[in-house]
Amino acid sequence: MKYLPFENITLHTQLPGYEVIKRLSDNLEPRKIFSFGFNRDRKKYEGNIERNKFNINRVIYYKNSFRPTITGKLSEDETGTTIKVKMRLHIFVGIFMTVWLGGVFLGLLAGLTAGDPVFMLVPFIMLLFGYGLTTGAFKYESIRAKKHLAQLFEAEIESTYNRRNPQNKQYKK
Question: FRET pair for 122, CA 20 to 30 Å: which of 14, 60, 83, 89?
Fold first, then answer.
């Protein structure tokens, strides 16, 4: 799972739920459809919070269609707050890349049936490029978002893609 453009993580913090929501809302602004220019007054995230759930994106000053959409759900217990976070591609980007990579894969299969190594090489390179671009750009943004969220909430991160090792904790404060 860690080689695909989505991640599930769990953040554990000793902060109460209301403090987590407050810290997130202090760093959150409403989503903007179009943002022009370079404005340093913007907050770190854009999106919305509803009770104990949030749906946000990191605010970046460059174009990256592969930046993750971050959804999270808070749950409190006696030791603090647990935040379950899912990072995914935007739905339209995911659909587009699936169709595009599917078409390239069909071209690769056509090259295999034709038996022409040159005809197979172009779709193979396009497949690698599409996968690398999508996953690399997504992971670049998700790593930055995980680090910032861990710092913001004074939290410890547990990646849940590795279910065999539940002690897979990162970014301790």
Answer: 89
pLDDT tens, position by position, 151-173: 999 999 986 654 444 455 554 44
* Regions of the chain where pLDDT drops below 50: 162-166, 171-173
Question: Would residue 26 count as lying in a domain?
Answer: yes
- Put simply, whether the predicted model's pTM sits higher than 0.90 gets the answer no
Cβ burial of 49 (10 Å; 0-12, 13-18, 19+) is: middle
Alpha carbon 161 to chain centroid, angstroms = 13
- Length, in residues, of the chain: 173
User: Which residues span the domain enclosing 65?
Assistant: 6-91+142-170
